[in-house]
Amino acid sequence: MEAYKLHPLVLINVSDHHTRVAAQLPPGAAPPRVTGCLLGHRTGAREIEICTSFEVPHAPDATGAVSFDAPALAAQQARYKQVFPAFDVVGWYATAAAEARPDAEHLRLHRSLAHLDENPAFALFTPGSSSGSSAAAAKEPTTSTTKTTASTLPITLYESVVRATETRFEPVEYTLATSEAERVAVDDAARSASLGRGGPGREREASEGYLAHLRGLASALEMLEGRVSVLVEYLKAVERGDSNARVDRATLRAAARLAKTLPAEGGGARFRAGHDADVADAMLVAHMGAVTKGMAEFEGFARRFSASHPEKSARAHRRGGF
User: Fold this and answer.
1) Starting from the edge strand earliest in sequence, which strands make up the sheet with 155-163, in order?
2) Distance between CA atoms of residues 112 and 291, nearest Å
3) Domain 3-195 class?
4) Who's near 208: CB < 8 A, 6+ residues apart?
5) Paired strand residues for 47
6) In sequence order, which ranges of 150-201 are alpha helices (DSSP H)?
7) Neighbouring-strand partners of residue 168
8) What Å distances lie between residue 159 and 10, 92, 107, 124, 171, CA to CA?
């Protein structure tokens, strides 16, 4: 069994694809199935990381068999190769109604990708449903993995298995993996979507988000204060010559370098004088910028006045005006 890692960008791309198609339909119409390919790479002998996706239309061919649009697939794959040269097509996705299961048409689409991957993964998204395959968490040094349960995401990941002479889909476990950049992007997108709904609770949601941000800053400052206190107590113990305080030269050198980066340490008056000088310089630069901008605007006004009132401009020049 392969080990699969799924990134949240895939979920965002497929949700956006489904929403855009559904938004163009008349009210009450059932959204059609949308399809696309999954891009990623193999990180181990039997480990596949699914990083992103792109849209690919599907239609029946001359024989009536449903398959992907080959020219569109090749063009999309070539474009993504220019940006992500390490990514290959490792599977495909499709949307379906809630509680749907793979059928014969899914299998025909699956076989049409055999020339790109010997065993492509199949992700079945069921918008509006909360069912999905479970995922076993794993630890990565550069990514964070989150364990999902069967009621967490409306997605089930399948792989094709040959039993006797029959090929069928079997669900597999996957891990939801996110990098630092992805976590920031997903959190920002979720916060923007929440605040963009409007309504009477919008201000309350914005204030709650700001308060959560302040609480995070307060927690970070408390943690920093605790660590600095531990370092200060250690330095005092070394200075007193306590037997329990082992002298670590590397720690002492690191503390000395840190102290040199703090100009306010041990010199409050000197720090305030330097700070006031920096503030005065910044205000002077801002004032000079405002004056320069005003002079440029006045010069432009004078040119426009001269062009529109040449006689008045000439008299003003003779009187020492413009």
Assistant:
1) 144-146, 174-178, 3-6, 47-55, 35-44, 88-95, 121-125, 155-163, 166-172
2) 68
3) alpha beta
4) none
5) 3, 44
6) 180-195
7) 161
8) 17, 11, 11, 11, 7
- Which amino acid type is present at position 289? G
Residue 290, amino acid: A
Domain boundaries, given as residue ranges, for the chain: 3-195, 218-260
pTM for the model stands at 0.54
Which residue in this structure is represented by tokens 């329990």? 244
171-221 pLDDT tens trace? 888 888 877 777 777 776 666 655 555 555 555 665 666 677 778 888 888
Task: Give strand ranges (E) for the chain.
Answer: 3-6, 35-44, 47-55, 58-60, 66-68, 88-95, 121-125, 144-146, 155-163, 166-172, 174-178
**Inter-residue contact 271 to 263 (CB < 8 Å):** yes
Query: How far is residue 180 from each of residues 7, 22, 32, 148, 294, measured CA to CA in Å?
Result: 12, 31, 34, 18, 45
Mean pLDDT value across residues 15-32 = 86
Q: How far is CA 188 from CA 83, 144, 176, 177, 212, in A?
A: 24, 17, 18, 17, 14
Compute the distance between CA of residue 249 and CA of residue 69 in angstroms, rounded to an integer.
Answer: 66
